[in-house]
Amino acid sequence: MGNWTLNFKGVDIKVDYEYEPPEDMVLYYGDGSGYPGSPEMFNILEVTHKGADITELCEVHFEAIKDAIRDEWTNERENY
User: Fold this and answer.
1) By the 8 A CB rule, do 67 and 23 touch?
2) Residues 6+ apart with CB under 8 A from 79
3) Is 31 helix (H, G, I), strand (E, B) or coil?
4) Distance CA 28, CA 31 (A)
5) Rg (Cα) of the chain, in Å, rounded?
6) Are the CB atoms for 16 and 51 separated by under 8 Å?
7) How far apart are the C-alpha atoms of 13 and 57, rounded to whole Å?
8) What is the pLDDT of residues 44-60, one digit of tens each?
9) What is the helix (H) or strand (E) element at residue 17, kind and residue range?
10) Among 35, 42, 47, 58, who pairs with 26 as Cys (CB 3.0-4.6 Å)?
11) Average pLDDT of the chain, as a whole number
């Protein structure tokens, strides 16, 4: 579980989330088996503003919030 604070649409929010990166497919292991891989898993658990739970109010914006967090991750990695 992680958390991220960001300014979203002019409001500072804290997002608690679960994240697992995608796993690549493996066509063949030495024993002939393989692994189909798995997609990224990103679930928003809670969104708060000044300590108040606003998760339900933000549900329609979850994809945009996830994209904003991913953008900040990318910018942070590029500047590191």
Assistant:
1) no
2) none
3) coil
4) 8
5) 17
6) no
7) 12
8) 999 999 999 999 999 99
9) strand 11-20
10) 35
11) 92
Q: How far apart are CA 60 and CA 13, in angstroms?
A: 15
Of 2, 1, 8, 28, which is closest to residue 71 (Cα–Cα)? Answer: 8
The answer to whether 69 and 15 are in contact (CB under 8 A) is yes
- Under the banding of pLDDT at 50, 70 and 90, the label for residue 80 is low
Distance CA 28, CA 35 (A): 8
Reading the block at residue 29, the tokens are: 């292991």
Give the contacts of 66 (CB within 8 A, at least 6 positions apart): 42, 44
Q: Are 26 and 15 in contact (CB under 8 A)?
A: no
Contact 19, 37 (CB under 8 A): no
